[in-house]
Structures are given as C-alpha cells and as structure tokens.
Amino acid sequence: MGRRFCVRCGVEEDENTPIIDGLCPKHFVEERRIVSFPSKITIVVCPSCGSVLVGNDWLPTDGSIAKALEIYINKALVKRSSIYPGFTDVEVNVDKVVSDKAFYRVKGRYGKHVLEQDGTLLFEVKHKLCPICSSIRNESYEATVQIRSEGPPRYEVFRRIADRVTELKEFSNVVKIEESHDGVDLRVRDPSSARLIASVLKKEFSAHVKQTWKDYGYLGGKKHGKLTISARVPGLLPGDVVVFDEDLYTVVGLSRKGIIFLRRLSDGRMLSVKRDELWSKGFQVLTGKDYAIVEGRLLNYEGGKAVVQAVDSGNIYYVSSPKILDLGSRVKILIYKGIPYLLI
Ligand SMILES: [Zn+2]
Ligand SMILES: [Zn+2]
Q1: Fold assignment, 292-343
Q2: Which end of the chain is more exposed for a tag (fewer CB within 10 A), N or C?
Q3: Is the pTM of this model over 0.90?
Q4: How confident is the model at residue 2 (pLDDT cuts 50, 70, 90)?
C-alpha cells in the first residue's frame, strides 16, 4: 500500500508530517480552516465592567475588546460543528484588534500533531450593562455618609441634622436614606457631595469625621470603590444637660468651628469647649430620666442661696443662684442626684 502524500506539493506522510484529506499541514492551513467562523460576529459587552455576554452568562474580561472577543469565540464559536473533522483541543488567541477587525491565531491538535493557523474576522460590539453593573447603576451611589451619635442615638438630634441636610443643594445627590438602630446612612451619588455634607456636619454639629475607601480597586480599567464617611456627632443640642468635668452644664450652642458653648448650672459661668476636648475628657448627656424639673416660686435669698418653693409639692429648695431675680418670680429648678440647680 502506497504512502499518503500531499496533492499540492507531493510530500509524503511521515512521523512529523500528517496528511489531512490529501494535504500536508502547510497546504492544509492555506486551503482549509481548522475552525470556521462567520465572516462577521457581534459581541455584547458591558460598558462598565467589560464583561462579555456568552449565552446567558456574563463572563469577566480584562476590560479589553480583544479579550472579550477571545472569550466569546472560544466559548460560543469553537464547537464540534465548526471544527474541521479530526481536530481536537482547538483554541483561539486574539492577538490584536484593529478597528473592526480581529487578528487571531488558532491552535488545534490533529492526532499527535499541533497545527497553527492565523486568521482575521470582522466584529461589531454592542454595549449593554450587565446585571451587576445595572443594579449598581440603579442604586447609583458611590459614597455613604454614616451619621452616628455619641451616646444613645437621639431622635431630636437626627431630626435636626435631617432638617439641615435637606436644605443643602447636595441633598439632590442623596439617593437613599437608610435608618439603622444606631443612626442614619445617607447613600450619596458622588463622593464630593458626600464630603460636603460631612463638612456641614463637622462645622455645624461638631461631628467627628473619618473617611475610608471600601472595595477600592480597578475592574475593567475603571476605578471601583465606595467612599464611606463616618460622622459622629456629639449627640448634643442646645438645651441639653450634660455632665462634663464633674460639673453640670446646659448646652447653649454649637459653633461652626467645632466649639461647644456650655453654661455651668451651679454658677451660670459660660464655658467654650473644643469638640476634641469634649471627646477626650468625656461627657455624658443626661436625659429626662436622669433628672427632675420642678416648677417653683422664688421666695427669698438666704445665705447667698435662693429659696424656692415647688408649686406642686410645696417643698422648699435652697439653690445656688447665679443671678438675682425678683422675689415671687416663677423659676424652674433641675434636680440631679439630689442637688437642685436653678435653670435660667
Ligand atoms: Zn503540501
Ligand atoms: Zn458590568
């Protein structure tokens, strides 16, 4: 029986030269295709993350069109019906893309021989957001402002903050407000609006502000990450009663520069404290459960103390008085740990 040979060049089959349907490898790759593709293909790519749609699956890429094509071709187009009979382990590498033309190299095994073939194909790219990117896009926030308060969260504090934040023009970039047991999260479309809101919280509510990036990285050549700004407010509002430095104070005001104005209840002395100092020394906000407020009438002054009679109980209190008031005046006294203070 005669050996098989190439009908084009006459080379005979041997160890290193298979004859495939009458052709040597050189003439096979010139005249036939290891794998045949349509003359033009269309791929669907996510413009945000670069993943490519194959069937119903979105497969990740390195963000390049060449990679998207390569994945699509290998997963969707290299199949039994498109591979030349007798070939196995067919793999396509897309080397480069010029305009709408892809240059690729096919490797395929024929028996124990590996053949390579270059080719080009035309392609078109359609863009569509993948489900993950489209869900991110719908929520469309890149930053979160976490508003928390020192001490137990207080409804009045958050309401006051909410009233202020809704006045800001940046509030239009707040896409979602989530309340949790310990505060409020504002989901903000862009980091710069979030930073501005945080700076207002810092200036006007004496918030302690800290920024962190989460999930920071590059995906499909685009920067992905979420900015989280934690804003801890002192949980103080004018009128609050606080224990600070072992004394009892009422909060008179919060300044835009992080200064908290306090009035000492025992002698009416005014004190301005920096936010940081308040934090470092520690303070306690008292609630209505910690103290009692009693309505009374000023009867007299005795030994430098005001004599106040409670309207309801008729009890008499001797109270340090920072200020001389007319006898008979209606006054309020605050009783904390058994000690009465005159509220003026
Ligand atoms: Zn030949
Ligand atoms: Zn995507």
Answers
A1: OB fold (Dihydrolipoamide Acetyltransferase, E2P) (2.40.50)
A2: N
A3: no
A4: low
